[in-house]
């Protein structure tokens, strides 16, 4: 790891209200004609000349007598447009010319929150390695919204993005542990870490097996916070770089493997939301942090390893390592019998084939949890989709020579068989959900630059008060 500071976490925040701030009028297509009649004649003529029609994210800056912007019109588009392109309006606000702005009128509460959060998320810049120009438009917190809560959510998302975007040279197991310890110190959480051969003494053998070939010792990071309320345990895959091990990935497949700790980054982002909000619960975060490297002591195809719970696993592909490190962490988590157990991991290419990069698929047997997540995902514009724990596929992960197979042959239902594998280790926790995320924005979109991204954590955060009622 280079001696290069991580830098302070970028707080994403609204500006203070300013007298004379430029008003923003949000106008739907069907209200465009009426809006023109309420404008001064010269302003209406200007908007009509520029063919402003209220389309989603459409911007028309109306000049004042001195030539500077006096009012801004931004199109709301229709409900279908907003469903197709989330955060477009907030991103349009962030792209406005330098100045102080305020939103004059807001739509319904859900759309208003999406617009405000979209603005905040559009402020994000990853500037650790190259200076980035900040957004020059400063927006005052819209009235009627819990602005401080939105700022906490956006700042947690910024942390997740920073962690994923940082290359493995500067975000190996050591640096990931340092990031977790910094977060714990900020909120008064406790941290215990188990390193290297001590993992064997602590009966965490699969984490040791996967990470032992790296120069940076494998470890299990354990953070706890809160002293009352229901218990929530988050488990995040922290494979800081994945070469594929002895089943070496081709170069093209290795290019994005700095993001293979995206599960860890996402659970840390969710933990930050929970702690900064002060939710009344007992939080535990478990992160197996490793590098899947190649050396003389790397684990091999054909090996049979024993997990924390005594189950044996045949290693049919060293590139299916994420489920191995999660297995030990889930066993440890389940021993405490938390009220809710969540795992998040960049686990399978099959999940991407199924739902693409924009949707976070999740698995759970809990109907109430599934319904709450699906509803909250729509409310906060954080798309998720439920996939099944299809029990008849259990036979696909049972190789015969050992209890489980880490890489079933045939290539069918890869996301489901991986989730079924993990479920074996999450028992006896009564409520369990697994998220198979991508944690990466492959091309720039409104409020989401190309790079690391949070997936599913805002939906989870919104659902927690409901699904963890005491």
CATH architecture of the largest domain: 3-Layer(aba) Sandwich
**CATH-defined topology of the largest domain:** Aminopeptidase
In terms of DSSP E residues, the strand content is: 15-25%
By DSSP (H or I, 4+ residues per run), the number of helices equals 16
Residue runs with pLDDT of under 50 for 5 or more positions: 1-5
CATH superfamily of the largest domain: Zn peptidases
Which CATH C-level class of the largest domain is it? Alpha Beta
Rg from alpha-carbon coordinates: 24 Å
Family: Belongs to the peptidase M17 family.
Protein name: Peptidase B
Keywords: Aminopeptidase, Hydrolase, Manganese, Protease
Organism: Roseicyclus elongatus DSM 19469
Question: What does this entry look like structurally?
Answer:
With 470 residues, this protein is α/β, with parallel strands linked by helices. 35% of the residues lie in helices and 20% in strands. It is built from 16 helices and 19 strands. It has helices spanning 32-37, 41-49, 79-84, 88-94, 109-122, 147-165, 173-187, 198-201, 205-211, 251-254, 262-277, 322-335, 349-355, 367-379, 414-426, 457-467, and strands at 22-27, 59-63, 69-75, 99-103, 137-139, 190-195, 219-225, 231-236, 238-242, 282-292, 304-306, 312-314, 340-345, 360-364, 384-386, 404-405, 432-436, 440-441, 451-452. The strands form four sheets. Strands 6, 7, 8, 9, 10, 13, 14, 15 and 17 form a nine-stranded mixed β-sheet that branches. It has a five-stranded mixed β-sheet with strand order 2-3-1-4-5, with helices on both faces.
């Amino acid at each position: 790891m280079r001696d290069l500071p991580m830098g302070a976490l970028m707080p994403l925040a609204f500006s203070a209200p300013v007298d004379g701030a430029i008003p923003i009028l949000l106008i739907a297509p069907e209200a465009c004609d009426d809006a023109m009649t309420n404008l001064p004649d010269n302003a209406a003529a200007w908007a009509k000349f520029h063919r402003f029609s209220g389309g989603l994210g459409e911007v028309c800056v109306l000049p004042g007598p001195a030539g500077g912007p006096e009012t801004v019109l931004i199109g709301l588009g229709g409900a279908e447009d907003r469903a197709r392109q989330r955060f477009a309006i907030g991103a349009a606000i962030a792209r406005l010319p330098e100045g102080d702005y305020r939103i004059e009128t807001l739509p319904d509460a859900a759309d208003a929150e999406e617009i405000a959060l979209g603005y905040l998320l559009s402020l994000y810049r990853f500037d650790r390695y190259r200076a980035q120009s900040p957004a020059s438009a400063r927006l005052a917190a819209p009235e009627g919204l819990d602005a401080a809560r939105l700022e906490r959510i956006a700042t947690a998302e910024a942390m997740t993005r920073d962690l994923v975007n940082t290359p493995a040279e500067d975000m190996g197991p050591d640096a990931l542990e340092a990031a977790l310890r910094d977060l714990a110190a900020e909120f008064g959480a406790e941290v215990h870490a188990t390193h290297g051969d001590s993992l064997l003494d602590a009966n965490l053998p699969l984490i040791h097996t996967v990470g032992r070939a790296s120069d940076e010792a494998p470890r299990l990071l354990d953070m706890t916070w809160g002293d009352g309320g229901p218990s929530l345990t988050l488990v995040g895959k922290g494979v800081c770089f994945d070469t594929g091990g002895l089943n070496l990935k081709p170069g093209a497949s290795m290019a994005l493997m700095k993001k293979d700790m995206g599960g860890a980054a996402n659970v840390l982002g969710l933990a930050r939301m929970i702690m900064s909000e002060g939710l009344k619960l007992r939080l535990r975060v478990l992160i197996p942090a490793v590098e899947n490297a190649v050396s003389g002591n790397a684990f091999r195809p054909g090996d049979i390893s024993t997990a924390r719970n005594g189950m044996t696993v045949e290693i049919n592909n060293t590139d299916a390592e994420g489920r191995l490190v999660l297995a030990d962490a889930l066993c440890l988590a389940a021993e405490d019998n938390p009220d809710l157990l969540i795992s998040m991991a960049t686990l399978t290419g099959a999940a991407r084939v199924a739902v693409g990069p924009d949707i976070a698929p999740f698995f759970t047997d809990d109907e109430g949890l599934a319904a709450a997540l699906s509803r909250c995902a729509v409310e906060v514009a954080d798309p998720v989709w439920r996939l099944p724990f299809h029990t008849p596929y259990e036979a696909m992960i049972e190789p015969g020579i050992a209890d489980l197979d880490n890489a079933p042959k045939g290539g069918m239902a890869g996301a489901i068989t991986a989730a079924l594998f993990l479920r074996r280790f999450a028992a006896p926790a009564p409520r369990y959900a697994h998220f198979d995320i991508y944690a990466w924005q492959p091309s720039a979109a409104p409020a989401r630059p190309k790079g690391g991204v949070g997936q599913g954590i805002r939906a989870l955060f919104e659902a927690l008060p409901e699904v963890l009622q005491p």
